[in-house]
């Protein structure tokens, strides 16, 4: 099967909700023609189709797609993940941890690629949503111990002034390939992106305190045609099946 035919088959399976079948088609290509052939196809697939496959991360098995996706391809997928309206962020956290911390990867390359795209800091803020108080504590005092809420937050200028201070917690103490390690890398290796992410995270926390739901909060930023997670989980709708501003690879 030539690459364009495989891309069409993969997109058809994704649109029908058969994510397992779509991934199997990609895996079969790697098995028969090698990893380089799969990398060519991944480079041609629209971000929404790559996202449909990698967000269904299963930690019980290793995915060749997760192993070969590049930082740039992954970043383009991450910034549109919010279209699924998954309020639990389970899929977002799962795929980010699996790919950013994969054995051969440089996590900073993936984080930088995400930060370079519009919507990247918002995607990172979504990743940390459930840990807002501990991320705020980490920004303020360098530890992950939640602070007493005094209503006072470090200003952006103050955060920038201490961006390169010596860590109070060493990386090897929190090398869990999860949110703590990712937060540590952002703060001490890419501080500008950490501060940008924290600014967005604070805005989301304020919206929550004001009683705005996720949809109202998103409408304040940008309404870009989201789909209900429940529908995608049952295969009734996926971003690939909806109209998109992205140009198709075929």
Automatic annotation (TrEMBL):
Residues 212-250 are annotated as: Disordered. Residues 223-236 have a biased composition (Basic and acidic residues). Residues 212-222 have a biased composition (Acidic residues). This is Uncharacterized protein. It comes from Polaromonas naphthalenivorans (strain CJ2). The lineage of its organism: Bacteria, Pseudomonadati, Pseudomonadota, Betaproteobacteria, Burkholderiales.
């Amino acid at each position: 099967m030539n690459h364009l035919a495989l891309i069409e088959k993969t997109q058809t399976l994704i649109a029908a909700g058969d994510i397992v079948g779509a991934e199997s088609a990609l895996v079969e290509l790697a098995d028969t023609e090698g990893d380089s052939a799969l990398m060519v196809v991944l480079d041609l697939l629209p971000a929404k189709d790559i996202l449909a496959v990698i967000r269904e991360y299963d930690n019980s098995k290793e995915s060749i797609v997760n192993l070969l996706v590049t930082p740039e391809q992954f970043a383009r997928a991450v910034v549109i993940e919010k279209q699924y309206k998954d309020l639990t962020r389970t899929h977002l956290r799962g795929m980010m941890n699996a790919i950013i911390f994969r054995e051969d990867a440089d996590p900073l390359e993936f984080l930088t690629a995400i930060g370079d795209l519009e919507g990247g800091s918002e995607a990172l803020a979504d990743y940390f949503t459930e840990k807002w108080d501990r991320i705020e504590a980490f920004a303020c005092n360098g530890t992950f111990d939640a602070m007493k809420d005094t209503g006072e937050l470090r200003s952006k200028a103050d955060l920038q002034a201490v961006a390169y201070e010596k860590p109070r917690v060493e990386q090897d103490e929190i090398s869990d390939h999860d949110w703590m390690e990712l937060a540590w890398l952002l703060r001490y290796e890419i501080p500008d992106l950490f501060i940008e992410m924290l600014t967005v995270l604070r805005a989301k926390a304020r919206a929550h305190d004001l009683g705005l739901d996720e949809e109202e909060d998103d409408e304040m930023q940008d309404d870009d045609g989201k789909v209900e997670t429940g529908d995608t989980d049952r295969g009734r709708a996926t971003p690939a099946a909806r109209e998109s501003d992205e140009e198709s690879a075929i």
